[in-house]
User: Fold these one by one.
Assistant:
Number 1:
Amino acid sequence: MERKQLVTEFLNSYKERLNSLFDSIDLDILESIIAAMVKAFKNGNTMYVVGNGGSAATASHIQADFQFFVRYFTDFRPKVVALTDNIPLMTAISNDNSYEDVFVEQMKGMFNKGDLLLAISASGNSPNVVKAVEYANALGGKTIAFCGFSGGKLKELADLPLYTPNEDKDYGPIEDLHMILDHVLVNYLSQDEEFLSIGK
């Protein structure tokens, strides 16, 4: 079989897997996530974002989009903080305490009642992400989770778990979907009247 045919077949298979994840999105949960974000931003609260590996990159991307891409349709700047970006602090916490504490220690003294925590984990079981959600819940925050596979602990712990099962155990499509969800959310806000009214 020629390489072009193999590439074509692989691409079609990958597209089918990604489309299957799209089809599994719970639209009620997605709407509730948007409502929670708009409410938090309107009240002056902060959304913190956490994740490991590729999900850490997604967390950073979310902060960039919510704080800067929004300039195309509003002067308002939501308070969004990716707890994945302070490398000196993360290495200090990991070295002196534990990598499991890398997000919770950053939240101490910063996370307040009414704040949001968006936790991104394909497995839903990353210990540092799970601990962050537990901490946010204990402080009266609102917790959102993007998770795949079987949903893991985040599916049960988060107030709003956006769970899209990918039974083939391939991280690629689920991480792609989480990045796309960032773009869906931030671009949706460009037409949300309540969000656009903030700061006017």
Note: Residues 3-196 form a domain with the Rossmann fold fold (CATH 3.40.50.10490).
Number 2:
Amino acid sequence: MALTALDIYKNLPQTNCGKCGFPTCLAFAMQLANKKASIDACPDISDDAKELLESSAAPPIKLVKVGSGDREIEMGDEVVMHRHEKTFYHPVAYALMVDDDSPDIESKVQATEEMKFERVGQEMQLDMIAVRSKSGDPAKFSSAISAVKGKTSVPLVLVSQNPAVIEEGLKACGPDRPLIHAATKDNYEKMAELAKANNCPLAVLEDSGLEELAELSKKVKEAGVEDIVLDLGKKPLGKLFQELTLVRRLAIKKLFRPLGYPVIMFAGGEGASEGLEAAIGTVKYASIVVMKEADRAIMYPLLTLRQNIYTDPQKPIQVKPGIYELNGPAEDSPVLITTNFSLTYFTVAGDIETSKVPSYLLVADSEGLSVMTAFAADKFTADTATELIESCGISDKVNHKKIIIPGQVARMSGKLNENSGWEVVVGPRDSSGLPKYLREYVGA
């Protein structure tokens, strides 16, 4: 269980010196209990007390990193059960499974590497490749890893329960720090030895139940491996759903350290069935979901689901305010204005591009709020629109002073005209009307 403020206070110097930035040790203890301060702020705490408090203050789910460089994957370090309580920090990573005896490894990985999607300004794609030793041949496994690495730099999962196969595969990985899968009750000593020697995270696999999984994770930790990933094994989907939730609850609510690690899940089934299992893993706390196929029809909704879940609800996705040129505008092109909520911008920009009408789109800083929300909150007003018009340099790009505003904020047209000196034209209430509207506008 987490230490209370009083428990923490008992381990502090109790001098009320204020060196930590708080007036009393009790005030500091309260901040520590709420995870709003660091124990490092106290210069006088004893080493024993610091070790105790640091252990208590550690995140309930350990941060584990896989891979290296720009495409390194971070997992864990989550502190809440539900996103609205705070936020989720590390999105689930999607991995494609390739077998070492597959004849088309390179083409499969290449196709995956080229499969990218863009939504509201964020580029999304698969994050990892899981190489499975289906042949059981260490040399073939090593060759498959080299083939994968020749096509992508994403982090790898090495899938085999044979330590000899894993050992050979690690040689092919070099310093890339793959995730080793998996340690079991029969091989954990050798697997832990390999993980520790190569500074790699290690997945532990036990499908007999959570008690056995917790015992195995403790044994692996005692063997010197700090970065652990849990695999709950193959179970009926309903049972897996329950255990994924229970592991998260035990880690977050009970601070049960043996289960306080990220979880890897291997989606079963075919086609839509595999996609359904992957979706369950996405919404119920899996940190890695491994799939046998990466069909676009399955991946696009999965990536969209992930993006929606792991967007910080307290920080809307925003685009940079300023001028955006669409369809190659000229000096007589129409000028429109909207807010910098990412979904609003990309919807409006997409509809302008559909119209084929060369246009300038001014994007106002609304702190990431949509048009009506920003207008209601006084974040998108005649004053802020005027400030943008005057500061962005649009007057130097066009030979007119006409601006089209969203129909939803028609009420600010008079004041905007008065403040800016620009003729204000009220556009359609919804951006879906822009293609027809702009074609008629330039034809007028």
Note: The two ends are 71 Å apart (CA to CA).
